[in-house]
Amino acid sequence: MTFTVPEIAWAPLAPVLIVLGAAVVGVLVEAFVPRRVRRPVQLGLTLAALAGAVVAVALLWDEVADTGGTDVLGGSLLVDGPTLVLWATTAVLALLAVLVVADRTSTGEDAFAPQGAAVPGSGYEEAARAAGLQQTEVYPLVLFATGGMLIFPATGDLLTLFVALEVLSLPLYLLTGLSRRRRLLSQEASMKYFLLGSFASALLLFGIALLYGFSGSLRYAEIADAVRTVGGMDGLLLAGSLLVLAGLLFKVGAVPFHSWTPDVYQGAPTPITGLMAACTKVAAFGALVRVMYTVVPDLRWDLEPVLWTVAIATMAVGTVVALVQTDIKRVLAYSSIAHAGFVLTGVVALVQSGITAVLFYLLAYGAATVGAFGIVSLVRERGAVRPGARTGAGAAARVPALASAGSTADVVGTGAGAGAAAAAEDRAGVGTGAGAGPAGADADGEEPPVEATGPVLGEATHLSQWAGLGRTNPVLATTFALFLLSFAGIPLTAGFTGKFAVFSAAVEGGAWPLAVVGVVASAAAAFFYVRIIVLMFFTSPHGGPRDDADEEARPGAVVVTSQGFAVVAIAACAALTILLGVLPGPVLDAVAGVAQLLP
Amino acid sequence: MSSTVATTDVPWLTLLVVWPLVGALVLWLLPRGSRAAGAADADAITAGPRRYARQIALAVALVEVGLGVAALLAFDAGAAGEHQLRETHAWISQLGVSYAVGVDGVGLALVLLSVVLVPVVILAAWREQGSGALPTERLRHYLALVLVLTAFMVAVFAARDVFLFYVLFEAMLIPVYFMIGAFGGPRRRYAAVKFLLFSLAGGLIMLAGVIALYLQGPGGPQGFLTENLTGLDLPVGTERWLFLAFFLAFAIKAPMFPVHTWLPDAAEQAPAGTSTLLVGVLDKVGTFGMLTLCLPLFPDASRWAAPVIVALAVVSILYGALLAIGQQDLFRLVAYTSVSHFGFIVLGIFAFTSTSVAGSSFYMVNHGLSTGALFLLVGFLAARRGSARIEDFGGLQKVTPVLAGVFLVTGLSALSLPGLSTFVSEFLVLVGSFGTNRAAAVVATLGVVLAAVYVLWTYQRLFAGPVRDDLAATRDIGGRERWVVGPLIAIMLVLGFYPAPALRLVDEPAATTVTHVGGEPPAVDMPVAEDGDHEGSEQ
């Protein structure tokens, strides 16, 4: 047997190579660059790599638009129009997400644990904190994950698909566990994500094996041929396809494979949640579209009932469960599930315009998601009880417990040691926080916001803490409202254009019941987005509706000033959201011009 | 179409849309002024450009009125049935969406109504300056929202593209939502959310209809243009479903029985100026949509559904009036009278005679003026008393004679007294409907009687009788307030005695619409086509 060196066209691979190469260099930087300058080097490298990937995509664009794309590495990667769109989307969103990741409060605190390996609450961890250690490994990890995400939707064979899945997942499992605050919650999330993710990988792998058994090939094109020609093994084919789809549906967070989403989104460091929610979804939907449109389109009559059920269940569960959440990150998690359902309606449609619609939707959704989580990462709680709390004793007892939850672990009520931890809490700068600005007494005499004092703790994720944010931080709250309106699909935001496109595709593909369910779900979903807007703008701080007993003991929220990276990212996301809502024409045209999958 | 109309160069409608947006942006971007740092109390802003937010807003609104008049002059009233001042640009050609605006007579009338009400509303909010109700800083936001809303209102009445119409139909909710939710009464959160959810639910159902309609149409980069979607030969079932999807959204907006329940809450909790715009203009989008989208796009389904809709309209007329009689809160009372009046408008539209349709079109304008003025007056009363409950007033006409007189005239316009413009339109609606829906027209006439009850009885309880001691020092209507209601009453009187110019605007579009829907020729000879012989009828 002779080994023939495959012809490799390097140019079309450039975006992937740049990102993965920079990731490898990043590992070396960790080893050889002095600690002082490590962060700027890593950050510059990461941003340059992602920007380079975008530029490389732009350089490839014309050729691909003309020729329809090429397959490289002997057909393992298909660089066609949708691939380029997904690459550009992923790279841009990752770039913005990295800006949020890189941000630190003005006192230099980032979102990551000083020493990921330390046992939560241990002396070792405390020592690492006291030494002021800062993580910089997150940058290469993010780059590796992004590299996997770039490969994932571009693969032309099932084995590469699986490898890409692992490349993108493993760094994310790690990153999920690295939260600075609420360490136990974070590690629990990481564990859950890893276990369920491995399970999904196993399903995918099993499906790949069955499809290989059916067709004798791992190539998408050859499997598709086999689907048309080979008869008599329908059981193998169907089981294989369903298992592969299950693996992909897990990654997009579709019901019934969604249960990891809220826990992981809540536990992961918020900037990482933004990255996961936006980019992973882009990559996974890209892969799903390719499999649906090129591998198993001839099975549509068999798969349709299953996928319709999944899409309807995803929209319904995501929407309904989000209605009763009290944690902002969980609300956004369930909303992301609902959005997965909306995108699925476009995927299931199996018409040409469906590809364009899905690609556009992913960009629109991703921009709002990165921005929304970026804002969540800036809204923090403070360790102060407002004067005149109703239950003085109860509130006082609650403060150390909260401080402990914020600083070291989730173990509520660890006793005296927790109070010390709170004292050791590094003080982050407080900018235009409560009290400053045009807070103003309310027209109907509600009490003005209370000046919070005390150390800034973790993120204020409980919804009640967001009350009155529109009064204290109008710009930030308005921007967040913009993202929420985009999620809700209000016209003149990107979300509306995306929703319109996928529902149109669904109706065009004969899946009008899905569109109807989608519309109903959108109406219901609007309720919980609007509820947050009500909280932010129409409720004075601490004056909101009380839906749980211990709310009055929760510290209020302040917005920290940061080094400004996150603000840049949020502003860019907001601009994208408006631009894609008001003038989506050029982007839609560009996407539609190349939305042709290679067979 | 005459060539002079087609070649108009100035994009008046776009100017009308863009100008208030610019104004709103200016208001939001006003620098804070020098003593920013310590000014925690918003009322303390006495220096810096933000102080002039009201003046700027009013100036913007007055220029907007000027633009509206310019558009009216550029409009050829002789061809009012045509869409004029047209502009068509590709917007999202991939989805078949164009930025296409243009107005026929009805659209222009409603655009003018919108721009005329805006300075009035701004002037009505003026006084709140520093008085504690709306601190300067928040007043600035409020006025900016009013201007944003103005742009959307103008654009929605001018849209000639179904997608554009839908986008504006939904986008309008956002400023109104904040205008109710952030600046309203004690239960404003509830009212704002109820308003938003009702409207959004209706809008999303309409969205499904919009998508499905597009796929039935010719498609292409201008596939959403109204004229490209008119006259499609839709299958019967499809057409009916599409009609229902659109109609439900409009019925919620209008609001019609039984989906009207959001209006009283919203009107009660919103500031008076917001209610004026909400009921005076925004709700017209519902009836305007029925008139300009439902009827031309789905003529067969409109005829199919007409009996039920006419019945619902009659129910709205009587039910709204009866509930209005029973209200204790003045804002809710006015809101319910509107439900009744919208019943008349819908009745006229679905009676399918050119008389009734023209009457409904004119009614939309008159109702905006009359109800707008009524809301503002109730707002004045509530500001004086600190309450809008009827039982808190009594005998005011001796203390505030001018206010009482103005209220009476406005109230009489709500019950369509001859000599006021509402009479003309209500008369046309009833006459026009009588030919095709005799029973409905007869029953609807009862609504006029009930209107007399709620107007006069309310007047009696508020203003007649002995002066209550705690009201003895009530201020009469002041100079600014006269400027708020004066113009509205003047327009109502002018159009009441000489409605011909307004009717010229709405006659031809009505005839065109009726031709589209294949309605019967006017059963009763139109008395208005000549020279306003209503002047005779009211003497």
UniProtKB/TrEMBL annotation, chain A:
<dbReference type="GO" id="GO:0008137">
    <property type="term" value="F:NADH dehydrogenase (ubiquinone) activity"/>
</dbReference>
<feature type="transmembrane region" description="Helical">
    <location>
        <begin position="514"/>
        <end position="538"/>
    </location>
</feature>
<keyword id="KW-0813">Transport</keyword>
<keyword id="KW-0520">NAD</keyword>
<keyword id="KW-0874">Quinone</keyword>
<feature type="transmembrane region" description="Helical">
    <location>
        <begin position="331"/>
        <end position="352"/>
    </location>
</feature>
<dbReference type="GO" id="GO:0050136">
    <property type="term" value="F:NADH dehydrogenase (quinone) (non-electrogenic) activity"/>
</dbReference>
<feature type="transmembrane region" description="Helical">
    <location>
        <begin position="138"/>
        <end position="155"/>
    </location>
</feature>
<feature type="transmembrane region" description="Helical">
    <location>
        <begin position="161"/>
        <end position="181"/>
    </location>
</feature>
<comment type="subunit">
    <text>NDH-1 is composed of 14 different subunits. Subunits NuoA, H, J, K, L, M, N constitute the membrane sector of the complex.</text>
</comment>
<dbReference type="GO" id="GO:0042773">
    <property type="term" value="P:ATP synthesis coupled electron transport"/>
</dbReference>
<feature type="transmembrane region" description="Helical">
    <location>
        <begin position="558"/>
        <end position="583"/>
    </location>
</feature>
<dbReference type="GO" id="GO:0048038">
    <property type="term" value="F:quinone binding"/>
</dbReference>
<dbReference type="Pfam" id="PF00361">
    <property type="entry name" value="Proton_antipo_M"/>
</dbReference>
<keyword id="KW-1003">Cell membrane</keyword>
<feature type="transmembrane region" description="Helical">
    <location>
        <begin position="40"/>
        <end position="61"/>
    </location>
</feature>
<feature type="domain" description="NADH:quinone oxidoreductase/Mrp antiporter transmembrane">
    <location>
        <begin position="461"/>
        <end position="522"/>
    </location>
</feature>
<feature type="transmembrane region" description="Helical">
    <location>
        <begin position="475"/>
        <end position="494"/>
    </location>
</feature>
<comment type="similarity">
    <text>Belongs to the complex I subunit 2 family.</text>
</comment>
<feature type="domain" description="NADH:quinone oxidoreductase/Mrp antiporter transmembrane">
    <location>
        <begin position="156"/>
        <end position="384"/>
    </location>
</feature>
<protein>
    <recommendedName>
        <fullName>NADH-quinone oxidoreductase subunit N</fullName>
        <ecNumber>7.1.1.-</ecNumber>
    </recommendedName>
</protein>
<feature type="transmembrane region" description="Helical">
    <location>
        <begin position="358"/>
        <end position="379"/>
    </location>
</feature>
From TrEMBL, chain B:
<comment type="similarity">
    <text>Belongs to the complex I subunit 4 family.</text>
</comment>
<dbReference type="GO" id="GO:0012505">
    <property type="term" value="C:endomembrane system"/>
</dbReference>
<keyword id="KW-1133">Transmembrane helix</keyword>
<keyword id="KW-0472">Membrane</keyword>
<dbReference type="InterPro" id="IPR010227">
    <property type="entry name" value="NADH_Q_OxRdtase_chainM/4"/>
</dbReference>
<feature type="transmembrane region" description="Helical">
    <location>
        <begin position="402"/>
        <end position="420"/>
    </location>
</feature>
<feature type="transmembrane region" description="Helical">
    <location>
        <begin position="483"/>
        <end position="500"/>
    </location>
</feature>
<feature type="transmembrane region" description="Helical">
    <location>
        <begin position="333"/>
        <end position="352"/>
    </location>
</feature>
<dbReference type="InterPro" id="IPR003918">
    <property type="entry name" value="NADH_UbQ_OxRdtase"/>
</dbReference>
<feature type="transmembrane region" description="Helical">
    <location>
        <begin position="12"/>
        <end position="30"/>
    </location>
</feature>
<dbReference type="GO" id="GO:0042773">
    <property type="term" value="P:ATP synthesis coupled electron transport"/>
</dbReference>
<feature type="transmembrane region" description="Helical">
    <location>
        <begin position="304"/>
        <end position="326"/>
    </location>
</feature>
<feature type="region of interest" description="Disordered">
    <location>
        <begin position="516"/>
        <end position="539"/>
    </location>
</feature>
<dbReference type="GO" id="GO:0016020">
    <property type="term" value="C:membrane"/>
</dbReference>
<feature type="domain" description="NADH:quinone oxidoreductase/Mrp antiporter transmembrane">
    <location>
        <begin position="159"/>
        <end position="449"/>
    </location>
</feature>
<dbReference type="Pfam" id="PF00361">
    <property type="entry name" value="Proton_antipo_M"/>
</dbReference>
<feature type="transmembrane region" description="Helical">
    <location>
        <begin position="275"/>
        <end position="298"/>
    </location>
</feature>
<feature type="transmembrane region" description="Helical">
    <location>
        <begin position="195"/>
        <end position="215"/>
    </location>
</feature>
<feature type="transmembrane region" description="Helical">
    <location>
        <begin position="106"/>
        <end position="127"/>
    </location>
</feature>
<feature type="transmembrane region" description="Helical">
    <location>
        <begin position="241"/>
        <end position="263"/>
    </location>
</feature>
<dbReference type="GO" id="GO:0048039">
    <property type="term" value="F:ubiquinone binding"/>
</dbReference>
<dbReference type="GO" id="GO:0003954">
    <property type="term" value="F:NADH dehydrogenase activity"/>
</dbReference>
